[in-house]
């Protein structure tokens, strides 16, 4: 249990120096110091650390996507109402009603998720928040 000097000692010899050099190299790599490793690419985690904590969204893209989904949901609702009022035999209508209903539920789930993700990225009280609130209300009314 006696203290060994950092680079050489009788018990550890020159191998200790190599261990320290490797440790220093790994430390430089881990902390993104690329001056000692040829100035190569920085580590992926170091690049991610530079990204904003809250992802940015494009309100125009969100609005376009949600409005498109709302139109499709409304079309499906109209088609369901039309099929229910048709004079076709029951067995022909049921599979189509089920298919439309399943597709519409999936689209509504995706739209809801899009709106939730967008809300998570905007600041309360901002103009984007107000626009999302309006889209959310339109979505609820369509459902």
Describe this structure in words.
The protein is 67% helix and 0% strand. The chain contains five helices and no strands.
Helix-strand layout with pairing:
Elements: H1 15-30, H2 44-49, H3 59-84, H4 90-121, H5 127-142
Helix pairs in contact: 3-4, 3-5, 4-5
Keywords:
single chain; 143 residues; mainly alpha; 0% strand
Question: What percentage of the residues does DSSP assign to strands (E)?
Answer: under 5%
Order of helices and strands: HHHHH
Radius of gyration over all CA atoms, rounded = 30 Å
Number of strands: 0
Mean pLDDT: 78
Largest sheet: none
The span between the termini is: 74 Å
- Gross morphology: elongated
Number of helices: 5
Going by helix content, strand content and strand pairing, the class is: mainly alpha
Helix content range of the residues, please? 55-70%
Low-confidence stretches: none
């Amino acid at each position: 249990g006696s203290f060994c000097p950092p680079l050489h000692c009788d018990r550890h010899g020159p191998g200790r120096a190599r261990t320290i050099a490797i440790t220093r190299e790994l430390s430089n790599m881990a902390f993104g110091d690329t001056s000692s490793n040829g100035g190569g690419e920085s580590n992926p985690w170091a690049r991610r650390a530079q990204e904003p904590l809250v992802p940015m969204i494009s309100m125009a893209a969100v609005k376009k996507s949600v409005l498109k989904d709302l139109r499709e949901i409304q079309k499906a609702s109209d088609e369901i109402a039309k099929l229910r009022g048709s004079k076709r035999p029951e067995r022909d209508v049921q599979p189509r009603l089920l298919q439309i209903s399943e597709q519409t539920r999936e689209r509504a789930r995706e739209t809801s998720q899009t709106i939730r993700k967008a809300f998570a990225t905007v600041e309360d009280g901002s103009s984007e928040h107000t626009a999302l609130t309006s889209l959310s209300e339109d979505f609820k009314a369509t459902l």
